[in-house]
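In response to reviewer comment 3 from the previous cycle, which asked for concrete evidence that the modeling workflow produces usable outputs, we include below a single protein chain processed end to end. The sequence was submitted unchanged, and the resulting structure tokens are shown without manual editing.
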Amino acid sequence: MLDLLNAIPRAFILPPANLFLLILIGLAIWRRWPRAGRIVAGTGLAALAVLSTNAGAAFLVRPLESMTAPLLAPERAGAQAIVVLAAGRLQDAPEYDGRDIPDVLALARLRYAAHLQRRTGLPLLVSGGTGTKGLHAGANGNSNALADAMAAALREDFGVPVKWIEPRSRDTFENASFSAALLRADGVRRILLVTDAMHMPRARAAFERAGMEVVSAPTLFFGGQARSPGAWVPSAEGMRRSWYAMYELLGIAWYRLRHS
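The workflow returned the following structure tokens.
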């Protein structure tokens, strides 16, 4: 997926920028082809309005979340380790002495991983590099690999030990490849994989391709929450969910095309 997003700037293929671009195209052709211009611009405007709501985003979110299910009995899954994948971070957080800290999405994954670790007693691996080529230091001179920030949060904030740290991966495919190598060295084959529900289909496929036996342990299910009338009110959260869901749908399609 990174190859595709490097070739075509992400902003132009995901909402809301792609919808604004569609509207601009409609306006540009309006004078010469009024009917076509109205249709194109109107379609972009309508899609922008709908996908800016939590209810509209659910049309993209639900198909992704239907590909996985909550893990009901982690103690009986037969797993040998827990793997939690990185999300984003807040860089050089002043309240943490300039350290990088996990963002809200990453914290939700870490909270669920900590919950699973307490229930199962399984050793835990955190996976995530910087998202760029090579590591660099934060304001305090420490590595800002996502995995390091995640491990610190698990140990210091959740009181959960971390056995393996995988700090080199730049995407989900590398999460799987590098984590699998660490785990196989210790004889681990079957894992509980922790990420949010929308990301799970692509993450599971990557880890299975890397040779792991995967038990899905998804968190953050959004699709069933858009039930009140207020879910049709445009919001930044609605657009965020639409952006994320479309990113994952494109990612799944790209992975299938790449590895078919």
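The two ends are 14 Å apart (CA to CA). We consider this sufficient to address the reviewer's concern, and the full set will be provided in the supplementary archive.
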